[in-house]
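Folds abound. Consider this:
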Amino acid sequence: MATNLKRTDVVVVGAGCRRRRRRPAADPGRARGDRDRGGELARPARLRSDELRNNFRGWPQSAQKANGEIPTHRPNATVAYSPRFAIHPMMNAVGGTSLHYWPQSWRLNPWDFKVVSETTRRYGASRIPKGSTVEDWPFGLEELEPYYDRVEYEIGVSGQAGNLGGKIDRRGNIFEGARHRDYPMPPLRGSEFTELIAGNAKKLGWHPFPGPPAINSEGHDDRPGCMYHGFCSRGGCPINANNSTAVSTVPKALATGRLKVVTLATITDVTVDDNSGLINGVTYVKGGQEYFQPASVVLLAGYTYENVRLLLLSKSRPFPNGLANNGGQVGRHYMTHNTGSTVAALFPFDLNNWYGLPAQGVAIDDWADDNFDHSRLDSIGGGNLRIYSDRRPIGAASMTTFGKAPKWG
């Protein structure tokens, strides 16, 4: 039997990077509770520049979300299971994977909001396959822009605007939608490697720009600028220059006295009233005990996998196939942000790309969205092309030498 708790205004499920897309700090007029499956890890003593511990032994082992479960990935039930990486980067903790990710903080581009109408306008209605479920958003980037701006300033994002109030600045992304002010901090500094690549991209007529990470390029919000030590991927930031929610928004919300964070809690059901179909709370398990937390509003702020799973598990009389899934669309159309496609090449000179962090990258959007002509292609859309440095000693020693030299060890 679940223990019934005192009602709260808002429950936020998850305290990681998806929470950044929500209201940054607790509203002084409302009480809210965060439920997160992990514990608190964002303490400098726990975040160390140790490649063996972080990247090969999977620190923090206690928070390895996927490795504590039995995930299955396959496109459908008739296909064999495909194995996953031994060390999964996603974790449960206050701050979630934002503790140690590459904090890329991109906005959607204008085309993303009107894929159908823009594709039809340029290539004709037949270009959208019959039976496709792709749709335009009911609003455009201009409606979201003030909220993007607020989040960028609240957590701290460094970058270079490419479209400031309609004025194009070629130092930034010329394909981005208009923003009403620049980033709160200038971009992270380049390196010899990124400047070499950007310079050659310009010679080819492309439009390189520094990617926008949620990392301090200078002092911000009483936390220092990045030291460029390069161990933040999986290892976290020992000086808190990486603006994870654990050091940016969650502490501010706690300081209002209106937020309570419940760690090591697993949400099992978002409950609804059987008569009205309205959400009325969540059920969660903590320490082997089940609790019911009544709430007026429930925000799902886990990663997409967890949000989808929780919606599908939350079955009721109004939603027999899972919450918000009467149309059968929950969990479909997922697009990952996987950056696993790599290129290895041998140069006749030293690239000096042995140091720096992945967020310190250069990107081009020349082949993203509909920024190039698709008339002779059988596809629409495209992707962002980005280069970065992610070299630590063990990883560098494991690189291919193209048979020109023996590998280390």
